[in-house]
Amino acid sequence: MSDHRSAAPDTATGARRWWARAAFALAILAVAVPLISAGLLSTVGSLLVGIGGVTVLVAALYWFLASRGVLRWISLTIAMLSPIVVLVLFIRAHLLAEVVASIVLALLTVPCARAALRGRISDTAVREVPAPPVRHPVLIMNPHSGGGKVAKFDLRRKAEELGAEVVLLEGPGTVDVTNLARHAVEAGADLLGVAGGDGTQALVAGVAAENNLPFLVISAGTRNHFAMDLGLDRTDPSRCLDALRDGVELAVDLGRINGRPFVNNASFGVYAEVVRSPAYRDDKAGTVLGMLPDLLAGQAGASLVAEIGDVTVRNPQQCW
């Protein structure tokens, strides 16, 4: 018997091709509109003015972030004035409409290009399977994480009502979360979970992986990047507890850097130094502005050493 396969075109591929054509057409129009309307010389002049304005704006913003005192506020003033000056120059040259139209067309190319590059869901995507019932789940909760979400959403009581043993990270002093999780496994835990930040999630996930146990993510941290990637509700972490009675399992990768586990991302450099600051949680903007000058100048923060074959590069983040 012959195998008569469907010859219908791949509609998804066809749609992406049309999105790609639209992106190219919009990009061409973004260049053509000012050329046709204002002419070559005016268009080149407008382009130079725009590039100059963007350059001044970026430089001023950098010095605003990298400086303190009077220089910081002078830089902010320049950053605020530069787009106004560019706008006035465009108005005086009677080119505002052409420039705005060109910018709008250029911006429209972005969603078209994204739609054209968006692939189909892979057949190897992570699949959900029903989670088997557990007898002794142990949940480690950080009452200080996320501005006190454990207490705000009454997570301890709700978890205990569902049959979980809850361990609070209350100190005194620094608690070794990894050892705490290992003791829970030795005591018979058949599921580990965390209501806390991504760092605590990673440490306990490492112990769960070592012992081939399921791991429950409760979105009670500040940023909850891992919970977001899993599609969990970040506005109400108590909904994550539903997995204790009606959950699904996903197999995900666990990474390690220098023996320390991480669940979805690991950072170093300016961002990592800022978010690890205890003051960041309560005053994000103030902490960033206070730490950036020293971090950008290389006077604070961890030093990176990169080994590339026989070549050792020290502090590459300070190369200008």
From TrEMBL:
It holds the Pfam family DAGK_cat. Keywords: Membrane, Transmembrane, Transmembrane helix. Residues 132-261 form the DAGKc domain. Its cofactor is Mg(2+). GO terms for molecular function: kinase activity. The chain crosses the membrane at residues 21-41, 47-66, 73-93, 99-117. It comes from the Bacteria. Belongs to the diacylglycerol/lipid kinase family. This is DAGKc domain-containing protein.
